[in-house]
Design goal:
Blueprint: E1 4-7, E2 14-23, E3 26-35, H1 45-59
Antiparallel strand pairs: 1-2, 2-3
């Protein structure tokens, strides 16, 4: 999977970070969700729902291992 950082809105009131890297035979994965506030208005609900769906979809991606020749 590709790395990504996504903000909920322009203010950055929430963001999702997904980082994956390889060093030799070790794979490191970092996934972080951060919220700067806990209250959201009814108008923000659609964006918040889409944000969480994107997080779930990203974390469900498979990591594919290929055998070296």
């Amino acid at each position: 999977p590709k790395q990504m950082i996504v903000k909920l809105d322009e203010k950055g009131s929430a963001y999702f970070e997904y980082r994956i890297s390889q060093s030799g035979s070790t794979i490191s994965l970092r996934s972080r969700v951060k919220f700067d506030r806990t209250m959201f208005t009814n108008e923000e609900y659609a964006n918040l729902r889409e944000f969480f769906n994107m997080i779930v979809n990203k974390q469900n991606e498979q990591i594919v291992f290929k055998k070296k020749k």
